[in-house]
Write a structure and sequence with these properties.
By secondary structure, the chain is α+β, with helices and mostly antiparallel strands. The chain has helices at about 5-25, 45-65, 70-80, 100-105, 180-190, 200-210, 225-235, 270-280, and strands spanning about 35, 45, 70, 90-95, 110-115, 120-130, 135-140, 140-145, 150-155, 170-175, 215-220, 240-245, 250, 260-265. Helices cover about 30% and strands about 25% of the residues. Strands 3-4-5-6-7-8-9 form a 7-stranded mixed beta sheet, with helices on both faces. The chain has a 5-stranded mixed beta sheet with strand order 10-11-14-12-13, sandwiched between helices. Strand 8 and strand 9 (about 150-155) form a beta hairpin.
Length: about 280
């Protein structure tokens, strides 16, 4: 599937519209009864998340007739499995990525959409409401559009040399869902690194990866609405992404129906260095 400029722009318009109508009016204006929790007391979902996802789900299915949507909030509420739809044309939707930041009045949040065919991302959109900027990733690379302007290629600098020390690399990591015995080992490893960046939004981190502001991202669990977009952005700038096995130093292409740990490295040349470091 080739995603043309028409689809690119139509999705961008939807993200701009839902931001104005359903996200920004609630930013720093949420009432207590408009904030809910899911898996833990700090795993937030808000009225803005729900309204945004409902709007995008309806509109995206209208863009490509026969397509289906896997949204974070609907999946959480209804237990929808990605494996049920992996052979279809699918949109993934994370209405507000970084909901905890959104609730706390922190600007580091975004909306993410990816378009997949046969389980593989073909295009991805990351929209930053607070800045009215949309980033788009495809096989052609990464493009950026400011509200009301046309897309232009994102100016990214390719890394020319291979790193020899993982301590020199900047990274983001989430260890939350690791098995307890593995978590102890990996936590001890990463705390020795000097250049951890904490953002709290996979989408914002993906933009940082694309721009070369960080070198790798590690997540303890794969979720389609988070990592389909990140996968596309990583590959669009020439990086490598894969689900990893800690004990075998092995990796596989990302299968979004599996919730195993996932690694994104901006430079293929650094993949072995980072994968070896993460391995036990």
């Amino acid at each position: 599937m080739f995603v043309d400029n028409k689809i690119r722009d139509e999705v961008t318009v939807l993200l701009e519209e839902v931001s104005r109508k359903n996200i920004m009016p609630f930013y720093k204006n949420l009432l207590a009864e408009q904030i809910y929790t899911k898996s833990s007391p700090t795993d937030f979902v808000t009225i803005a998340d729900k309204e945004c996802e409902e709007f995008l789900t309806k509109k995206l299915m209208q863009l490509i007739i026969g397509s289906k949507v896997i949204g974070e909030e609907a999946s959480s509420e209804n237990g929808v499995s990605f494996s049920s739809f992996k052979d279809d044309i699918i949109w993934t939707v994370d209405p507000i990525d970084g909901t905890k930041n959104f609730v706390n009045g922190n600007e580091q949040f975004c909306s993410m959409v990816a378009l997949l065919q046969d389980g593989k991302p073909k295009a991805s959109w990351i929209y930053i409401p607070i800045l009215d900027i949309c980033y788009f990733a495809s096989i052609k690379g990464v493009e950026v559009a400011y509200y009301g302007t046309e897309y232009n290629i994102l100016d990214v600098k390719d890394k020319k040399t291979t790193s020899t020390n993982v301590n020199f690399l900047k990274y983001c990591a989430s260890l939350r869902y690791l098995e307890p015995d593995i978590k102890v080992v990996i936590k001890d490893k990463v705390k020795r690194l000097k250049n951890q960046v904490f953002v709290g939004s996979a989408g914002i981190e993906a933009i940082m990866l694309a721009k070369g502001q960080i070198d790798f991202m590690f997540y303890s669990m794969t979720t389609p609405w988070d990592h389909a977009p990140v996968d596309m952005f990583c590959r669009a700038v020439g990086g490598k992404a894969g689900q990893i096995s800690f004990h075998k130093r092995a990796s596989n292409d990302i299968k979004l129906e599996k919730s195993t740990p996932v690694l994104f490295v901006r430079s293929i040349a650094d993949w072995e260095l980072v994968n070896d470091f993460i391995s036990i």
